[in-house]
Amino acid sequence: MSGMRCRRCRGPAAVEVRRHNAAFCRDCFVHHVHEQVRRAIEGFHMFSHQDRILVAVSGGKDSLALWDVLLELGYEAAGLYVGLGIGGYSARSAEVVRGFAAARGARLIEVDLAREYGFDIPTAGRRGGRSSCSVCGLAKRYVFNRAALEHGFDVVATGHNLDDEAATLLGNTLRWQTDYIARQYPVLPAEDGLLRKVKPLFRLSELETAAYAFLRGIEYVVEECPLVAGNTQLRYKEALNLLEATSPGTKAQFFLSFLERAAPLFARQDEVELRPCERCGQPTTGRFCAFCRTRAQILGERLAPVTPPVSDRDVAAEASEEVLPAEIHGGGAR
Ligand code: SF4
Ligand SMILES: [Zn+2]
Ligand SMILES: [Zn+2]
To answer: Helix 61-72 and helix 87-104: axis angle, to 10°?
Structure first.
């Protein structure tokens, strides 16, 4: 970094952003990050200063950086932390999230999976028919939407960065999962019972969000989730990083050009109709939502509607498949 000058003020630089072929001093880098987020929010009409925003926070750098930026930009942003019950990792994550909220006087909503729904992620991974990451992603998406609706928020924001989105797109493209590709957009509009979902960090790389968190003095959980081994998205990230090392900008071009030129070609054709889950009322395409079905399987319970009661035959006949997208990592709150 020695000798490099800030692109904006010509002072000594602290952070280099190779993709932009630029370097910034501390203050100008913070400004650069805010500008990228502002561009994302305004360019995609994500929300306004009148909206109530719920930020899904995991305790990692991305989601806390996002929360910080939104508060700095003057948005009404509360945090939502989902307790996954993954041992010390979850305990430490909860600590940093609480510390962040307390230091800024920001509102934090906590939902503990075990307490509210009777299972944690390690148990789910052992007992259910899905991998830990798959149940985890499903549970987080479910809780984000449900908690946001119940608490009267207008939009749910997640900390997915450029690296996350590019890796997910690579995975979806390798398999040509056109229905997932169609939903891989920085803003998903609200539908019956589903809140609007946005990803305001999609223009920033992982290096940029890490540098931002560091320069802003944000304490975050550096350790990886212990269940992450075998997570396919990590391999896609590594592959993209290999390309990026010799051709800086590859990642950004892959994802940002997709948004500009390819995404419209994948626009969803057959809109699926959503109706309330007979068990919990959250939107689904079948009688019961994927979360309720998975939960019943994990707990070894029979899945029955809350009201009105149906015959055993009807319950047994339940076979419809959920078509909400399952992201490859299933992360959601990083
Ligand atoms: S790696 Fe991510 S998605 Fe998988 S269990 Fe851990 S937190 Fe959940
Ligand atoms: Zn500067
Ligand atoms: Zn349900």
So the answer is: 10
